[in-house]
Specification:
alpha/beta, DHBP synthase, Rossmann fold, ten-stranded mixed β-sheet, 10 helices, binds adenosine monophosphate, binds magnesium ion
Amino acid sequence: MDEAAAHLRAGRLVAIPTETVYGLAGNALDESVVLSIYRVKNRPTFDPLILHTDTAQRLAQWVEGIPPPLDLLAERFWPGPLTLLLPKRAVISDLVTAGLPTVAVRIPAHDAARALLARLDFPLAAPSANPFGYISPTQPQHVLAQLGDAIDYVLDGGPCRVGVESTIVGLDAGGAPVIVRQGGISIEEIATVCPGIRLAAPSALPRAPGELPSHYAPRTPMVLLPTGSPPPQDVADRAALIFWKPEERFVDGPRRFVLAPDGLLETGARNLYRVLREADACGARIIYAYPAPEEGLGRAINDRLRRASNG
Ligand code: AMP
Ligand code: MG
């Protein structure tokens, strides 16, 4: 922990565990560090970064405040996989927000991440620790395999508990709360605090690649199958098959994967990126996948599966 903190204070990048995915973290108040985050990920600078800190009290240094009803969401879901879009103070560089007047902020529910953040007097900017557009890392080995040469330190926090990115909520032009990205907290849960909340309409110009049709993607072509449909004819021919749960049609074998062996949405979310990586690395020429049930966390899982199959 001390070593990781020392690297960060010296302006270097450290991969950190969180409950969602591993982050590629650096001092958010240092523009040259922020630039190096974009560079290492090969991420376009129009894709804004999320600030991470350990307490809501410290946030006041970096944002103007938490407007209602986002304050209620913060109270209910922080620490946790919820990111809020808040009016930024001038100390937060346009490089972090891609020129937007709001900055994305979250308090992770991960002991090691929060203990590290508590040691620092600056917030961490931390996108997922993977090359831009590829599958997010949920284990330290995933980070090492792809960015090991480019970063100074990986803080090992074991496998990520939630496994998909945070849910992002902001305000629309009329001040109503909208979900900008589906994630670790389901729409149903958000709606218990903000009744009737809706998904932001996809903007003609995507605000960010998390909203692009192709993202979170394996290198192998991937096709999403309708639930309950039979596997395609060519499935015997070096195709990988990802099932939601063990079912009648499931036959164990090479290139066969299951997202949720127990059928639970939480399990499927936790396994999603690891299974996508395994399917991508198994030598298949194509990956076929069945979606999760379209409810709760399943919506965030299916959102990732759709984008992964739009390569
Ligand atoms: P990640 O790639 O998980 O670090 O999440 C970053 C994502 O947060 C971006 O791709 C955007 O979708 C979203 N985001 C960050 N800041 C803003 C902002 N100020 N306004 C809208 N979306 C934002
Ligand atoms: Mg990402």
